[in-house]
Design goal:
Layout: E1 17-22, E2 27-33, E3 39-44, H1 55-59, E4 65-70, H2 90-102, E5 108-113, H3 115-127, E6 131-137, E7 148-149, E8 154-155, H4 170-177, H5 189-197, H6 207-215, E9 219-220, E10 224-225, E11 228-230, E12 237-239, H7 244-247, H8 256-261, E13 268-274, H9 288-293, H10 311-324, E14 329-334, H11 341-344, H12 346-357
Parallel strand pairs: 3-4, 3-5, 5-6, 6-13, 9-10, 13-14
Antiparallel strand pairs: 1-2, 2-4, 7-8, 11-12
Length: 361
């Protein structure tokens, strides 16, 4: 047996290999399928998730593709190293580039879901010349998650209050750290997954495996969700310097946009989202602007000061600029679908995805 083969926290499906890949930065756990000489497809998972969320999609690829789905730093079975949020998504981007080099990957297709889509903005900006196509599935806004208004990502406050680790429910993080597999409505990781990751009444066939993937995220002040500082601005919390929730704050991301637009070779982009997504939307239920407007969080200063972040509108505006700069993109919306179209409508997703990989759409 090869020494780099690994026993994953979540046993993979038949046809998928679990492997630990040593890089100069850290040892990355990755799931792999397909022939070693196949066309590489890099799958990047979302927050409170892991590589196991991609397994069915990996196995549904045509036989001439090689799927590579790593656990990001801070997630799954990859080395437990902290995330320096002041670098935005660059810790993850540089980890992926190191993994790519270790596996001998040249040109490749890239796919990112949710936070993985946020990472993809940075990966495209850094390595777009080597990306044959990009697929963004319910991606975070290019201007970060929370604390911005308008289509250009203007911060609501100079200290970016309302974004970062302080926006995460501490009870949810504590339950993740405790490995809570219960189904208490509204607060347990299982309930959050089944309420927000997809549109009820959908339930995933591999619910227990996916829940294990959720619970594999590392929790702590330098892990998930990270640290935060007090703010004089509503909702009185601002980003700290560590962890994934801070890394996707507008305080630290957004510079990728101009680099993306300046790419001399622009990969084709497929943007896939669910019409009923409650996590990434123009009125996200995970955004303080929406929660304030709904009266869930008291003291909301109003629409003029802190509106719901137009996450979808911001993404569309950036991709329109991408098109004007010589790139190409398609927006595909699945009606009746939540935050995870590739699990909720796998056949429809795969038809569009494979056509995109093969340049047929």
């Amino acid at each position: 047996m090869r020494k780099d083969l690994a026993v994953a926290t979540v046993p993979p499906l038949p046809g998928i290999v679990s492997r630990r890949v040593a890089t100069p930065r850290l040892t990355v756990h990755a799931l792999l399928s397909g022939p070693e000489d196949g066309v590489p497809v890099l799958f990047v998972h979302g927050n409170a998730s892991s590589s196991t969320f991609w397994e069915e999609t990996m196995l549904a690829l045509p036989p001439d593709y090689r799927a590579v789905a790593p656990d990001l730093r801070g997630y799954g079975d990859t080395d437990d190293e902290p995330i320096d949020a002041t670098r935005g998504v660059d810790d993850w981007v540089e980890d992926l580039l190191a993994l790519k080099q270790a596996l001998g990957i040249g040109r490749y297709h890239a796919v990112g879901h949710s936070l993985g889509g946020s990472v993809l903005w940075g990966l495209l900006a850094a390595d777009g010349d080597h990306v044959m196509s990009a697929t963004l599935v319910a991606p975070g806004s290019p201007y970060g998650f929370g604390g911005t208004r308008g289509l250009n990502g203007e911060p609501c406050f100079p200290d970016f209050a309302g974004s970062g680790a302080g926006s995460v429910n501490p009870d949810f993080a504590a339950r993740m750290a405790a490995g809570d597999r219960g189904d208490e409505e509204g607060v347990s990781p299982r309930s959050v997954m089944n309420t927000y990751y997809w549109k009820p009444p959908f339930r995933a066939a591999r619910e227990e495996a996916l829940l294990s993937g959720v619970l594999s995220e590392k929790v702590g002040p330098r892990r998930y969700p990270g640290d935060y500082v007090r703010s004089d601005n509503w909702p009185f919390v601002a980003p700290g310097e560590w962890g994934p929730a801070n890394a996707i704050s507008a305080k630290y991301v957004g510079n990728e946009v101009e680099r993306l637009l300046a790419l001399p070779l622009k990969p084709r982009v497929l943007w896939v989202r669910g019409a009923d997504d409650q996590i990434v939307s123009d009125e996200s239920l995970f955004d303080f602007g929406t929660l304030g407007k709904l009266g869930v969080v008291p003291g909301w200063p109003g629409e003029a000061v802190f509106p719901p972040q137009p996450m979808v509108g911001q993404t569309r505006q950036v991709l329109e600029r991408y098109r004007e700069a010589g790139g190409a993109y398609e927006e595909l919306v699945f009606e009746g679908v939540g935050h995870t179209p590739y699990l909720e409508r796998p056949a429809e997703f795969m038809a569009a995805f494979v056509a995109h990989l093969e340049g047929r759409r």
